[in-house]
Structures are given as C-alpha cells and as structure tokens.
Amino acid sequence: MRSADPRRVEALFDAVVDLAPDEAERYLAAACADAPALRMQVEKLLAHDRAAAANDFSPVPELLFAALDEARDGARRQREAPRPRRVGRFQVLDPIGSGSMGVVYAAYDETLDRRVALKLLHGDAISSSWLRREGQAIGRISHPNVVTVYEVGEHEGSVYLAMELVEGPTLRAWLAEERRSFTEVLRMFLQVGEGLAAVHAAGLMHRDFKPDNVLIGPDGRPRIADFGIAGVAEDDGAGAPSTPRRRQILEATLAGPGRLAGTPAYMAPELLAGERATPASDQWSFCAALYRAAYGTPPFPHGDGDVAAFSRRVIDGTPAPPPRRADVPAWLAPILLRGLARNPAARFPSQAALLAAIEGHLPRDPDLDPSVVRRDVQILRSAVLIAAVATVITVAIFFRPLGVRGLASISAFLVSVELTVIALRWRSITRNTFGRRSAGILVFGTISILLHRMLALEMGTIFEQVVVVDLLLMALIYAFVAVTVQRWVAVPAIIALAAAAAGAHFPHITRPVYLLGSVGTFLLVTLDAFRRR
Fold first, then answer.
1. Of 49, 124, 208, 226, which one is the catalytic site residue?
2. Fewer CB under 10 Å: which end of the chain, C or N?
3. Active site includes 306?
4. CATH for 78-164, among 3.90.1310.10, 3.30.420.10, 3.30.200.20, 3.40.50.720?
C-alpha cells in the first residue's frame, strides 16, 4: 500500500486530534473515503495520542514510530543520498556533520564570496513546515552569541539553512581540551547565557541546550547553534494551535526512533515527564551544563546508563550536593540549585535574572574574581604584615631612634619576604589576573618605597620628610589598586593621603601618624581578604 503524503497526515491529524472518538471516526470516514493509507496513518497517530495519556512518563512510545516508518525511511534515504554539488547559489564543499534532522555541509556563497555552513533538513519528515522554523527562529535573533542565519530556502523538496560557518570546537570539546580555571569557564558560560537570554527575548526556546550545541569560533566567542527543535510560545509556526499532545508527537517525530526530543542529561524534569517546555526549561539546561563544567560532575548521576532510571531521578528534583572545589566560590551552588529546581516557578523568573544573580557576585572583570586566589593572597599579605611588624619592633629596639637607615632596612627585608612567598606559591597565586596584579602591585609598591628611602639616605633627607613622602607613595599605590582591581581600596588611599597631610603640617607627630597610616592601611587591606571569604 502506497504511503500517504506526510503533509496531509499532519493536517488531518490536527483536525481530529481534539475531537471525541466517535466524531473523529466520522470525520476520517468522510475525509479519507478514497485514501485508506491516509486514514490508517492518522488512526495510528490518534491511537498513540490516546495511549500516551496512560503513560505520560514516556513521551516517545514505540507506537508513534510505527506510524512514522514511511517518514523515517525517506529521511534515511536522504542521508544516504550522494552529496549535492549545488544548493541554490551555494557550491557544496565538504560534509561537516549529520544528525536525525539533517546534514550539514561547508559551502561557498559565490554571490557574497564567503564560506557558510549549509544545513539540508530532511524533507520527508511529517512536519517539514515545523522544520523550517529552525531558520525562521534563528533569523529573528541578532546577537553575537547566537549563530547567524543568512538564508532559508528549499532544494529538491527539502528545507535548507545557510548559516554562519563557525570553524572551531564545541563547548564540550573546549572544556575537554585542557583543565580550565573556574574564571575561564564562567566567562564562557556568561557569554553563552547572554545568547540564551536573547533567544528568550525573541519569544523562542532552544529546547535542546547543551555544550554540544555551542560553537566557539577562532575569536574565542561562543555561538549557540542547532535550533532544530526550537519552540515558539504560542504556535508551532504552521498556523495551527500548539497543544501539549501535538507538541509531543511533533518533537518525537523530529527526534527519531528511540530518542527523546533533546538530550536527557540536559533536559528539564518537565520535559522528561512529557510536559510543555518553557524558557525555564532552557534555564534548567544551562544550569545543568554550568554545574557539570564547574564541578566536574553532573547534578544528577547517570548511573548505569538507564535513561528511565535517570529520568526518574531528575523528575524527583533532588540534585546531588556539589562537591567542594578550591577554585569554585561557595556562592555559585545556591544559584545553580535554584536554576535546577523541579518546579519551573521556583527557578529564576528569566535567564536574564539568573545571569544577574551570578554577575552580582563578580567584579567588573570576571578574571579579577578574588575568590579564585583568595587563600594565596591572604598568605602573601599576612606574611608581609607579620614581617613588617616584626622588623619594626626589631629596628625600634636596636636602632633607636628609628631613622632613614632603619626604614630602608625594613623595606629591603619586606621585599625579600614578598619575593620568597611569591616564588613558593607562584603557580597558585597566578591562576588569574587578580592574583597576578595583587602580587605585582605589592612588590612594585614595596620596591618603590625602598628606592625612595635609599635615595633619601644618600641625599641626607630628614626622617620627617621621608615618611611624609612614603605616605604619599602609599596613597598613590592604593589609588592605582582602586582603579584597576578593587574600588573600595580608595578608602586606604584617602587615609594614607590624610596621614601625609597631617605629618607635613605637624612635624612633631610625624612618627605616630606614619605608624597609624602605613600599618593601619595595610592591616585594613589584609583583613578584607579574610572578610570576603
């Protein structure tokens, strides 16, 4: 028996899916009087729809695929067909990849003289009009972190998409290439999150967000790709109402035999339970991906590969407590666990709100996150503070009164202590820009003061003038730190500047003012490192 036109199957199924069984039978008898194959396929789809109500846990039962054998055979024939030489104005070059929904080629756009990625979608699927939505969906978005679609068209009955060619690894491959610092991972995911927020702002959902669907170009910029099962909030792109059952059948059709419409490891619990997807489902997927990238383990253990058992764990909504990692700050876990909540209403109200919650814990530059090297900076500052106090006491005892030579001796000892600690903890303290800048500024500032004291000793400058200039140097160094690393350090800069002014106007109190201004400001900065745990 000849198979029916998939478009007619879809249209007729849409017409009867919400009717009562008797009414649907009468409608089919009238509409398919001369088309028994058409009626048989629609009845199989209806049988699946009615059977699914008793088995909501499995969104793709075998009955559905038995009804779609003809469509899958056509898709298989297309995958096995020889590579086309041309598609429209595009010259096809080399295959890049293939999947259940289409084949991707590298191609050359002769008109605009550029290489593109050409995705040729399987035209025999039951919902070819729904497949066309991939191009329409991405074409509505203009964002640096979403792959750009140049053209949507048809070639020999199949839909094709001409897209930006991103010649780089996927996010999954990028994470696997080498051990990435938390700062690198977070910087990358924040860009990806911005792209996902732009998708939602356009009224769309990705529905299959995962690291494999993020491409990283040679410029290091990630782009979200593969919107093959993207969803619109109100309709399916073909003008028909989008009921949950119809969505379920269409998604299963696109996924292929034996597969969910998405990747189980990154699918929100409501999708695994056969419920309707929302932007909150993408948020869940994003949090699952970031959880795995940050902690090196998924939020829900996969066990022995049993998808049904894994799905039950996800639907139960109890993710594993994140393991402790020295370079991952404690504030991240509560944010991700909220994004992984079982109830979509318990998650963040939007992807933008999730990103705002993360960015609220970061400095202006993610690579200046103190939490990455906080322990090492604490050790460095504490060692210098202890050495400073010890040398001041020693010099005060053996070199009374304290003079310029004693100050130069203190600076020389502090420089040696700093260089020793940095050498011992070099690998850990230089893991990000904050650590490198903190160590560099500390050494540079101490050496600058040492050189000033040595010049003052050589020129015979009086003690009171030396310490006033010392305080001015400290004020400048702290001001530089405030501009480049942490703004709050402007407070010690103001204190040092005030101490310099007081010493200049009241020479008789120079020594106590210098002690309070120098040791006090450094102690303030050191204690802040412990306070910001």
1. 208
2. N
3. no
4. 3.30.200.20
